[in-house]
Structures
1.
Amino acid sequence: MRFRRRPAALLAAVVATAAAATGLGVVGAGSAAAATIPVGQGSYSDTRPPGAAGPEDNTGAPVKPKVTANAAGKPVPTNDWWSSLAFKRYPGNPYSENLYGHPLTYRAVSGGLEVGYPTSHAIVGEGRQYEFPHKRDLTIGLAGLNSPDTKADSWSDWTVTPYWSDGTRTLRTTIGHGMPYVYAQGTGGAAQISTAGTPSVFADHGNVLGVTIGGRHYALFAPTGSDWTVSGTDIRANLGSKDYFSLAVLPSTDALATFRKYAFSFVTGSRVTWDYDQAAGRVKATYTLTTTAKEGSQTGTLQALYRHQWLHTSDALTGWTYASPRGTMKLREGASFTTSQKVAGVLPGLPRTSAVDKARLTGYLNEVVNAADPFQGATDTYWTGKQLGKLAQLVPIADQIGETGVRDRLLGLIKGRLQEWFTVGGASEFSYDRDWKTLIGYPASYGSDKELNDHHFHYSYYVMAAAIVAQYDRAWAADSAWGGMVKTLVRDAANPSRTDTMFPFLRGFDVYAGHSWAAGHAGFAAGNNQESSSESINLSAGLVLWGSATGDTSLRDLGVYLLTTEAEAIAQYWFDADQAVYPGDFGHDVVGMVWGSGGAYSTWWTANPEEIHGINVLPVTGGSLHLARNKDAIRRSIAEMERNNGGPAVEWRDIHWEFQALADPAKAKAVWDAQGGNYAPEAGETRAHTYHWIATLDALGAPDPSVTADSPTAAVFTKNGTRTYAAHNHSGSAVTVTFSDGGKLTVPARSTATGTGTADPGDPGDPPATGDTFHLRSGGTLSTTAAATPTSDTIASAGGANHDGTPHRPLVYEVRNVNGAHQSGGTTGFRLKVDAGTAVGLGQQARVSYDLTGDGTFDRVETYRYFATDPVVGWEEYDASRAGLKSASGSLGDLRGGTVRVEVWSAIGNAPSQLQVGSGSVLTIPFG
């Protein structure tokens, strides 16, 4: 079945677009004489083909980037969280749509910037979508400001500065992901804060004012010597000779002094750097804010980390948190932080095993290569890409079973179609738009031209296919041949350069959010969105393979960073792997789409559960192995799909079989065997690839991402306690790949090798944890050492519902790579310090889970009876032995590189409570 991605009529619950805006001037891409730009043996045009369209508003009028003179001519990062500032999609709104920075939300209007902090969610669209919608708490502006429009004045990796001017007054505000502050600079009028309701003042220190609006706490900061005055919903301060002021959303009123400390340390930029430590099998990323002191000498700041970040940082965090659609954000005091993650390997294809029937596989390969049209009539960028990807996945398979004739015919098909697209003058080509600094493929599809949607999706297939060609024909991949055009596509979709004047830095990838965005204009009330996160991963995996095949370590390492980062975001936000992100009343285990405001159990084209659950799996490639880190999430997804589908998948059955094989290969193989190959493959799949995938994993076992390697093109599989090591070597000489458990594998030149090796548990990049006592620490970790001073984490309210036995928005603490021998007869113990304050009727509950081998499956899960706290301020002790087990599943055994997890949540009650962390709350496990 062919599916559509963006039909004209969108799902009403998902789209929720804002009112429309004014059109702008004519695009200049077609105004000059056409020129063909040669790139190696290929080329692109600087003019669109006759009759083709470029970026336009929703009435069909062409649009240019809406930026100030300061930003004129600079590549605009479309497909970002704030893109509606620059891409005015709707006539009638020359400002912006809703912008989701997290924890704050924004919307540009004539009088300045609306600011909100949504702390509660809504379930909409017949239960299919959860959202934390923008709702104005206040507007930051200048007295009398009435700007006819808003423009983007400057931007950096995750911050942006909108600009307003009405001829008399000018205003700039700097906003960004993770920023609790809004920094304002203005002239021509007094600083003005207009509130949505009458504010309650909780602190007044002249130039520093603390106000509560709708239950949310804000601090307002004017220059020293100024004084805020409050009149109803109007708050003003004369700036005198100064031109700056700021505000911040506070996690609590007692945070005012800390926020005051950094109020005049204005953020001027944001930047990520990454470092792939190949020997350790880890990638580190450092996120830094640059600042300037408007008063005094303080240049530090405060920033809130998303879940996918604080799970992987060892940097100190405060005890303060914020709510967000991505779960709890944790506040750090400091201008930078660093994350460190294990790298998930990418393979060109799964390795050869004796379990695959060569005759059967050859028959399936011939079905494809002998088809009347192996491209199935594809003409546009997306569907051509799908077919290129389909054929590319068969090349390594044909090669490993000795079908070199089939392999070479496949390579010829791929090269031929790529070269058609990479050459101006035929039925298909790429054209460069000088105004928007983007390369658009024509024929286009799904708004890749008019809305600049999905370039990373479409082009991912071209890069992946080119990487497979480069594996077998490096001369074809040379810059002087066709590699230059491949790199030009990469520059459009995932440019690693900030100084390239032709393309923006990482167009689609939001480095702070940890994932890509699909819409070029972000013109929705729910913010930007991304549906097929797996197609975004396809680009990252393609970069790893292309860089490895061509010797371009810079692009290889870019792919490693992008894939590793987005893999964690996908686990947390698309699959809710830890069951700690989605609201308890959402009722779904996955979302098909992530929005700025939340997530939706839907797709752009259908409500079919098979496609909702499958769109974040396809295409299944050697870049999909990261999904196996969360095998329970895979099982939950398949179970929900089958419940909602009324049975197993029918239309996308092969995608779900392959997905299941990443967690339970034997089950997937049994379903395949029962089907006997008698089905219609998904449009980007083949029987050959699906059979090879399932049979290989059934033989080797599911991927074991707990073990890393000193190569980005290596992976480990585990079956019945036996590990199989696999690696591909793109180089011209043999290499020895070393794995984190001590296993070693010699891989001949330009080959894939496998072996069981001899493993010595231990990860040089993540030293094994030993001992039986762990302290719950801020940041979601379990540590064998206690902090010098205790802090507290907030346990979310049960919301008046009964969650006895089922985690609801739990606090999660985890330690990985734990080694220990199980002490027969020993039991789990914990002492958790909890405090309900004066709230009545609360009960906290804990669950302890053991993943004995670190393969993503919890072998033993223990849920304890909840502890009923008293309504008296002060710490109480929730003790495992006194509470007793409520339920338990599985059994314990020795820990070998295992994972131990503690979850704490509110089982009952209608108020939050506190858990002491750092020191005071302790877990003991029955291991020596």
Note: The longest helix spans residues 553-574.
2.
Amino acid sequence: MRSEFIEKNLATPAVSALQRRLAIAESRPDEPWSVLVENVPCWPEGKRPESSTASPDSDDAPYFYAPSQGLPVLREAIARREREMSGSAAVHPSNIVVSAGGMHALGLVFRDSVARGYRKAVCQAPVFRGVHDAMLAAGLAVETVTLTGSAEDWDVLAPMCREPTVLYVNFPHNPTGATASAGYPRFLSRFADTHDVLVVYDAVYDSFSFGPEFRAAPVDLAVSRPDLVVVNSMSKNYGRPGDRIGWITGHEETVGRIVPRLEWEAVSINSRAQQLAAVVIGHGNAALVGGVRAGRDAIRRGAAGHHLLDAPLPNGGTQLWMDLGTADVEAFADFALDEYRLVLTTSENYAPVIPGFIRFPTGLAPRTIREGLALLDRAMAAWEVRQRT
């Protein structure tokens, strides 16, 4: 059954509904599209780190191979960043492996887990479809589960992890914005003590925690035990998806396995992008996080009496998981595309598909958010009229 499922879903891959809609918009550039698909936050105008601050040696970057583990200057910058974010005194550059983005980092870990004998993955739902499919492509059978980010998850996970299992968790969660409790790292440690699991903690939104207490990724655990790794990237936390720079934080045993695998698969990661990433991490992302706060404030100000925004904002992330209350959200998204030049990310981008939801970005300029919400309202009203008639 599993081989039939993989053949059906991976042998003849098709572009997602989102990519299909984007292609339509890109093929008609003269029309006034409003594209509300990205959950990558945008730097406020005038606040982007300037690339001119990079080392003069960066022009030589394309002419040499970087170390497969990553440039020392970047791994040092990442280690400093993780010490500041998590309060860990144990993380060092030797615990860092630089990857070609967060998805590449996850793929490396998934493929390494299969090489070690793991054949099953349990992942938090809903999960970005790319992560789900990367697990399948690596050779893992995937089961999804809703998690609370608290000790209550024990009773849910224990019966699912009776065999060697890759346990994928993501906080702040994409797409819901849910955050884990302060004691969740201790929970994961106790759970790993009593179950044969490899915990993969996806922290690509860890800068965007807006609750009463900041929830740090379990970096201390990752560097102290080989059955837990933390994955992160420049894409969301620094608003730079084009750099394709991510990283794995792990125990020296984990690093010792991942680095040879990266060398076999890619030799090394783009040197110029690594040098620039070191500069950007050193610059910090306070203005970017401030931009997301401003976007959240814009939504909060428009929430009073709004039929889609009456729920409290999530404690984390750069998007809202918005229930439109429509039976066929894919048909509505196509209608919004055709009639209102509005491009939306629907729940088809996640697994399992939860009917009726879209992902609405909070990392855009407040004016763009206000205009996008107004356009979405117009499209929804017209859709309801169309459905009735």
Note: The longest strand covers residues 165-170.
3.
Amino acid sequence: MPEFAASTVCMKVPEGVVSLPVRGAETDLHAWAVEAAARHVGPDDPDPKLLGALAAELRAAAADSRERAPITALSYVPEPRLGELARIELSALVADDTYPTMSVELLQRYLAAPTPVSYRPPEAEPRSLPAGPAVRVRHAYVQDVGRDGLGTVMETCAYGIRADETWGLVLLTSWQALAHTDALCELTDELARTVRVTA
């Protein structure tokens, strides 16, 4: 069992989020999404179209996040009628035989590596957080490129946090609503400051 399994990781949960069931393959995502959408919208707005659209989006979000197996994943839905504004995931990275020591430099190489779908070069800067030394990385990608060469821009703001020499954490917020970039980066900054690791 990895050493970090004995640690407890805590992070403040912002208002307007739905916690996605990324652990436990036995969860029926369809039934869960219907219940989660109704709970998030509340009894004051039982519009069937709204509930159906939000349930479908939450189900897709949960299935997508499950593929990356994060510690926790949150769908940020501050306004249910607009659907998911951003996805927030907190994941663990463990040192291995190839990289036996976790470092901020290693986290930066992992998060700030340019890719063929990078929209612009990643921007990295060192940070100091209560959970440990860290690096903050802004990145943008082009997804779902069609035959016409056009695609959708996905922006991310991530923190790589070195918990100790054997493992680290990655806090990643991703979104397509570019008009909200500044606010979502600020939200990620606030969340990063709330991450705590205890043995």
Note: The helical segments are 29-41, 48-66, 104-111, 181-194.
